[in-house]
Write a structure and sequence with these properties.
The protein has 390 residues and is an alpha+beta fold. It has five helices and 15 strands.
Length: 390
């Protein structure tokens, strides 16, 4: 039920500005020219289909046949009023890649293109209401929702017989960030700084929490000792927590330049979040408690509710040698994105995307595996509907 409510809320955030923009555009066309000036909607909707394929047969240099299909949608719906601006952005993507690892006939084990892997999965919805205070300075209230459409897996082994382990799904994790910010806005870029930001993390999948993928949702808080959670004790599973609310500081920098060079568009984004309350392993353990590798493992186990192995001596030494600034940086979440689009024609473009994240609540490659990287380049067919028309 919780998933359905959150999904409906997210869809409302996406489609309400679109519907209002359409209605206001029609009203503007029929209104009397002597009426009181009102705000103006400018909208842009860009669905795109990206397709890539490689076919090999009896090729001396060898290679694996592959087909990659990804659908994306980028929408910008802005309402500009003399007193405020309401800006809404929807950035969605979902795609798969199929590989024929042995370039075999369809009657082989697994058939042709026997492996399918998700190549892209993104839900990113933003709504921002801003007021101009003095020159380029102002204030804004921003709400942002991030999650994914489908399940995510890690794989052990190669090809058709690889063992898949689920590590994520829709709303596991999901992030809702709200911020009241100071804002500096120029023509091509803007900077928002907030010392009062709420970030809510959702993990609405019990099976992932039982595997240790809690994505920062603290399971055992020393302030609530009456509701312990232990993966080895099914009677405590009713105490499993699915939501964590963080209060912290938030910095967002955006740069959007149309026609940086002829037909070349650039978009760059940087987001930084620091949680005031959650230090290292929630409030279960402070930095001064890191005296042995076993204490690290004990705190990590208590924090996630899942038994984990001890950190190595080298990793422990690095943690102990961190100064105040390094420790704060270790606890800070970072999200960077870069996009380049080159338009060959009205409906065909080449694109490049890079997304780099740092999140101490996710350790996909061990204790230091907090970095996440996604990079994509390809050709896409796209369409664009704008109001008002150029």
């Amino acid at each position: 039920m919780t998933k359905k409510i959150l999904l409906l809320t997210a869809m409302a955030l996406l489609f309400a500005p679109m519907a209002m923009a359409e209605g206001n555009t029609n009203d503007a066309a029929t209104s009397d020219s002597t009426s009181t000036p009102k705000g103006v909607w400018t909208t842009s909707s860009t669905p795109a289909l990206k397709i890539g394929e490689f076919i090999y047969h009896n090729w001396s240099a060898t290679g694996n046949s592959q087909i990659d299909i990804t659908g994306t949608f980028f929408g910008n719906y802005k309402y500009t009023h003399p007193k405020f601006v309401w800006d809404n952005i929807a950035d969605l993507a979902y795609g798969f890649a199929w590989q024929d690892l042995d370039n075999s006939a369809e009657d082989s084990v697994g058939g042709r293109f026997e492996t399918r892997r998700k190549s892209n999965d993104k839900i990113d919805l933003t709504s921002a209401l801003s007021w101009k205070a003095y020159k380029d300075w102002g204030a804004s209230f921003t709400a942002n929702f991030k999650s994914q459409f489908g399940k995510g897996y890690t794989y052990e082994g190669i090809g058709y017989n690889a063992i898949a382990t689920e590590v994520s799904s829709f709303m596991a994790p999901g992030y809702l960030t709200t911020a009241l910010s100071f804002e500096l806005k120029k023509t091509d870029w803007s900077v928002s700084l907030s010392f009062l930001t709420g970030k809510t993390t959702f993990v609405c999948d019990d099976s992932l929490i039982l595997k240790g993928y809690n994505y920062g949702v603290i399971q055992n808080d020393k302030d609530d000792p009456k509701a312990p959670f232990d993966i080895a004790d099914p009677s405590t599973h009713k105490n499993m927590k699915h939501v964590y609310f963080a209060l912290g500081s938030y910095l967002k920098v955006q740069y959007l330049k149309k026609d940086l060079l002829p037909n070349l568009d650039l978009y760059a984004r940087l987001e930084v979040f620091y949680d005031y309350n959650k230090s290292l392993f929630g409030n279960n353990m402070g930095w001064n408690s890191i005296d042995t590798a076993s204490s690290w493992a004990t705190a990590r186990t208590k924090y996630t509710g899942v038994e984990v192995t001890e950190m190595g001596a080298d990793g422990l030494q690095r943690m102990q040698e961190m100064n105040w600034f390094q420790r704060r940086m270790f606890e800070t979440d970072l999200d960077m994105e870069l996009k380049l689009d080159y338009r060959f024609s009205e409906h065909i473009a080449a694109n490049f995307a890079l997304n780099l994240k740092y999140d101490t609540d996710f350790s996909g490659m061990g204790w230091g595996g907090h970095w996440q990287l996604y990079q994509m380049a390809g050709i896409q067919v796209f369409f664009n509907w704008k109001t008002p028309k150029n």
